[in-house]
Design goal:
- The chain has one domain.
- 0% of the residues lie in helices and 55% in strands.
- It has a five-stranded antiparallel sheet with strand order 1-2-3-4-5, with no helix packed on it.
- The N terminus is likely disordered.
Length: 123
């Protein structure tokens, strides 16, 4: 991997998430309450052959709940969950220009909370 300098900045790598699983719950008159559990992968792309991790694809698990409010043709959705990613022994390639966060070494298992809001329309 080439050295990262001001003249040669770090590559931009994309991330692809693939999750597959179940969502179960109950719809009431104007509200829906659901739980979800999904398993899949995270894939970190590369730019020009460079990557940010020593391992480009890792497993991922997402668990959480969804609250929905039905207002005519509109659906307001609040999704609260946690993405659990077991990176194992994968490490980050360190940049001399960036701070050492996280510290060098295996990443282990990371859990990342998420809160998402969405609006859908039925027709």
């Amino acid at each position: 991997m080439p050295a990262v300098t001001a003249a040669n900045p770090a590559p931009v790598a994309g991330q692809t998430t693939g999750l597959f699983g179940v969502r179960a719950g109950q719809r009431f008159q104007n509200v829906g309450v659901f739980a979800h559990a999904r398993a899949g992968f995270l894939h970190f792309g590369n730019e020009g052959g460079a990557t940010l991790l020593t391992r480009s694809t890792v497993p991922a698990f997402d668990v959480g709940m969804t609250l929905e409010r039905y207002a005519g043709p509109a659906i307001f959705r609040l999704d609260i969950g946690e993405m659990i990613v077991p990176y194992g022994n994968a490490t980050l390639f360190q940049s001399p220009l960036a701070p050492q966060i996280p510290p060098p070494g295996p990443l282990g298992t990371r859990a990342n909370p998420s809160v998402e809001f969405g609006i859908a329309f039925r027709f």
